[in-house]
Amino acid sequence: MSQFDVVVIGAGPGGYIAAIRAAQLGFKTACIDAGVNKAGDAPALGGTCLNVGCIPSKALLQSSEHFHAAQHDFAEHGVQVAGVSFDAAKMIERKDGIVSKLTGGIAFLFKKNKVESLHGKGSFKGKNGDLWQIEVDNRGERSMVEAKHVIVATGSVPRPLPLVEVDNVNVLDNEGALNLTEVPKKLGVIGSGVIGLEMGSVWKRVGAEVTILEAAPVFMGAADQQIAKEAFKIFTKEQGLNIELGVKINEINNNADGVTVKYELGGEVKTETFDKLIVAIGRVPNTEGLNAEAVGLAKDERGFIQVNEVCQTNLPNVWAIGDVVRGPMLAHKASDEGVAVAERIAGQQPHLDFNTIPWVIYTDPEIAWVGKTEEQLKAEGVAYKKGTSGFAANGRALGLGKAKGTVKVLADAETDRILGVHMIGPMVSELVAEGVMGMEFKASSEDIARIVHAHPTLSEVLHEAALAADKRALHG
Ligand code: FAD
Ligand code: NAI
């Protein structure tokens, strides 16, 4: 039987990074993963993120943005294009190519770092002295490994909607939404969260009529509401996404004519039939098949593996990271927890600050933030000041033809320490890193205001917002 210092279960961005870091630190490491490729005929590392999440969705967002730009934006640059057409199958093929390249890249990194990659489902079997015994089930072929430390990184799966079953033909989860080879005429989306907005944008740009049905009365409740309101206006009024808030879904029928959804909105009962329906109402932790109960691995009431602030579970030398534990379900959060756990096993004292984990929504314009929203600061009774600046007069944004959006800097009223940075605009997925860096280094808004920002760049809008926080905006 093979024995390891560290066995990681799951090779998503949490698990594969934990395994690489553990191996780099000198531990004999194995990573067990059950993931398979789209065809279902070969192992595919990388978890949700690489196979059916972050990476494929961003590929489709880019392709659909190009198509939309060719139709609507090129002309103002003097670029005339005639007969623009769209090939959904080609877009999916390109996306699949990027996915295989990156998932294959992890197999390469495992070899390079001497991580033993074991394909199959990992489950707890018991203990042999102080070693944990983990069974690996590769389609019925069973083997056992033993390890001093186990890191559980089994991720998450889509939250099911009891009213309908996902068949990934007409009723789609994220996997199905990323694999349509024809543009649906009418697309329904349940949930205006991150997946709903990103996938709704993709299929809207390439010609679908998109209706998003959201239960919450408020749009993007977790985001700063000034930014959320601006986003809502752009998505609905300018881009034509039909977003209904405060909806109660009563019934869904998946039949030959399409998917019929009966719902209530403002006291009225409505019925809509869609060609395809995406269900994106959140994700739940995945502990299926892990045999957690047999060894007494504790979960909370929502099914997340219970961990303390450094990802220790209730069992000695068993750790858990990423989507299967509390905190935001984001790839970079999973990876950073993976690094931190490997380093902690090595006796180091790493620290991960949840308040500086950035969020990005890759719509157009993009939305990004770090730290506290204005609503949170008000609720916590924190005295703050704010500075905002827009992209409308930013030279780079105008040149790009993407001069929409706002950056807002929130800082402590007394100390000027940055408490939050919120953005909607072009490439703010990149710009938010400056806010994260500032907050990690406990910068004040004056620090950002006094740093030289290249001209003309999008970053000048953040600079200007920081100046505005101190009431000395130069272009405001
Ligand atoms: P996962 O990536 O879910 O990986 C878990 C792995 O464990 C899987 O390979 C699974 O097969 C394997 N596994 C499970 N159980 C077992 C077992 N018993 N034995 C062996 N293997 C097992 N996040 C971002 O930060 N940015 C984005 O742009 C972004 N876009 C997204 C888009 C979509 C459509 C979706 C669905 C998610 C997106 N996310 C994004 C979220 C991101 O994908 C997750 O936060 C991230 O993948 C979590 O990583 P993880 O390692 O915890 O788990
Ligand atoms: P989400 O939590 O972002 O949004 C789900 C939405 O569905 C919420 O607005 C919720 O109010 C709504 N909802 C719940 N039940 C409903 C019902 N019965 N009827 C109508 N609406 C209902 O979840 P989503 O979009 O499924 O994404 C899952 C997670 O994946 C995200 O929370 C995020 O962590 C991750 N993700 C991250 C991305 C990024 O970082 N860019 C992109 C996509 C996903």
UniProtKB/TrEMBL annotation:
Give GO BP annotations, semicolon-separated.
2-oxoglutarate metabolic process
Identify the GO cellular component terms for this protein: cytoplasm
Q: Which InterPro entries match?
A: Class-I_Pyr_Nuc-Dis_Oxidored (IPR050151), FAD/NAD-bd_sf (IPR036188), FAD/NAD-binding_dom (IPR023753), FAD/NAD-linked_Rdtase_dimer_sf (IPR016156), Lipoamide_DH (IPR006258), Pyr_nuc-diS_OxRdtase (IPR001100), Pyr_nucl-diS_OxRdtase_dimer (IPR004099), Pyr_OxRdtase_I_AS (IPR012999)
Superkingdom of origin organism: Bacteria
Q: Which cofactor does it need?
A: FAD
According to the record, cofactor stoichiometry and binding are noted as: Binds 1 FAD per subunit.
- Please identify the protein, giving its name as recorded: Dihydrolipoyl dehydrogenase
Q: Which residues form the FAD/NAD(P)-binding domain?
A: 4-338
User: Is Oxidoreductase found in the keyword set?
Assistant: yes
GO molecular function list: dihydrolipoyl dehydrogenase (NADH) activity; flavin adenine dinucleotide binding
Enzyme Commission no: 1.8.1.4
Question: Which residues does the UniProt record annotate as the domain Pyridine nucleotide-disulphide oxidoreductase dimerisation?
Answer: 357-466
Q: Does the keyword Nucleus apply?
A: no
State any further remark.
Answer: The active site is a redox-active disulfide bond.
Q: Which PANTHER family match?
A: DIHYDROLIPOYL DEHYDROGENASE (PTHR22912:SF224), DISULFIDE OXIDOREDUCTASE (PTHR22912)
* Key words of the record: Cytoplasm, Disulfide bond, FAD, Flavoprotein, NAD, Nucleotide-binding, Oxidoreductase, Redox-active center
